[in-house]
Amino acid sequence: MLEIKDLSKSYGKFLAVNQLNLKIKKGDIFGFVGPNGAGKTTTMRIVSGLLKADSGEVYVDGTDALKNTKQLKAKIGYMPDFFGVYDNLKAIEYLEFYASIYKILGTDAKKVCRDLLELVNLSDKEDAYVDSLSRGMKQRLCLARALVHNPDLLILDEPASGMDPRARFEMKEILKNLQSIGKTIIVSSHILPELAEICSRIGIINNGKMVVSGTVDDIMHNLNHTAPLKIKVLKDIDKAVTYLKEQPEVDQIKVADHLITANFTGKDDEVAGMLKRLIANDISVVSFGQEAGNLETLFMEITESQEMGGE
Ligand SMILES: Nc1ncnc2c1ncn2[C@@H]1O[C@H](COP(=O)(O)OP(=O)(O)OP(=O)(O)O)[C@@H](O)[C@H]1O
Q1: Which letter, b or e, does each residue of 225-257 get, where b requires 16 or more Cβ atoms within 10 Å of its Cβ?
Q2: Which of 31, 86, 107, 209 could form a disulfide with 195 if both were Cys (CB 3.0 to 4.6 A apart)?
Q3: Atom of ligand 1 nearest to the CA of 205
Q4: Which residues form a coiled coil (predicted)?
């Protein structure tokens, strides 16, 4: 659906995007993650046809996006990370205004805009003034605006920034809905866990370069990253520890009461295999789980080492 090859963009002497490569399949929710100033907005604005690249190639459905910006605007919906102020406009009027830009007018426009308000859970705010909406509601309205011309590819720049947990949850549900109706979505964030659970794939960008991309599992595995296992056993704690010590994927075993904590390097199927083998060895497992949140550590490690390696 989207392919970016060796994309570069400088602002004066400052290289904001540096030979960036990226591939996104149709139907993906791709999480574009990186610290502030990494180059996410610059990349997204280039793909959306709002900013010129210095060099590189961008293809949307096989079409050269840098040479056919007008044609591709119909396919792409862009939601900026900034929401302007619109005095004296009701939510529905705001959407109708954007619909009119795409020549969707009259009763057609009303229907499209009402459907979009429903999609982003704002039906009851149809006649509310935009300025009276909460930040989360404004962001959802902005998302509806990006959808007004029914694009296949959605490019969302920090759609959940500044939202409270409930509003973030709602935004995630909306994105999953959009995926289920066939949209391909790129969503950026500087907070990795915010995205990991809904994204089919993520890419980590730092200093304008794509450092790593793939499924969350693949990234953890390829970087040989460890995720702590927590295993509670009923009895046989010594037997369990002896068994775990023999496993190459396991290290740094710690025991407190009946709880064993150990670092584990491997994918989900290997974690499942470990649980099966513990039980097959007659160890009474009360609970077994792998801690989440390690992705955050991984993200910090990747971006820190890059910063130190950079200029
Ligand atoms: N118009 C501009 N002129 C000069 N420098 C710019 C301009 N726009 C962006 N930059 C710089 O380019 C770098 C990348 O910016 P960009 O906005 O693409 O990053 P980002 O990953 O989206 O960051 P954030 O999460 O803070 O929005 C930053 O160092 C930024 O200061």
Answers
A1: bbbbbebbbeebbeebbebbeebebbeebebee
A2: 31
A3: 21
A4: none
Q: pLDDT digits over 257-280, tens only?
A: 889 999 887 777 888 898 999 999
**pLDDT-derived band of residue 292, with 50, 70 and 90 as boundaries?**
low
- Residue ranges in 39-90 assigned as alpha helix (H): 40-47, 69-73
At 7, give phi and psi (nearest 5°). -75, 130
Q: Is the CB of 9 under 6 A from ligand 1?
A: no
Look at residue 69 and tell me whether its pLDDT is greater than 50.
yes
What element of type H or E holds 227? strand 226-233
Beta carbon of 39 within 6 Å of any ligand 1 atom:
yes
All domains of the chain in start order, with CATH: 2-212 (3.40.50.300), 228-291 (3.30.70.100)
User: Residue 152 and residue 172: Cα distance in Å, rounded?
Assistant: 18
Ligand 1 mean position, distance from CA 32 (Å): 15
Measured on CA atoms in the order 267, 156, 40, 132, is the torsion positive or negative?
negative
Query: In Å, what is the CA distance from 69 to each residue of 58, 60, 191, 239?
Result: 11, 10, 30, 64
Q: Which of 18, 41, 205 to mutate to test the pocket of ligand 1 (most atoms within 8 A of CB)?
A: 41
For residue 222, CA distances in Å to 87, 123, 226, 270 come to 50, 45, 11, 14
Distance 44 CA to ligand 1 centre (A): 11
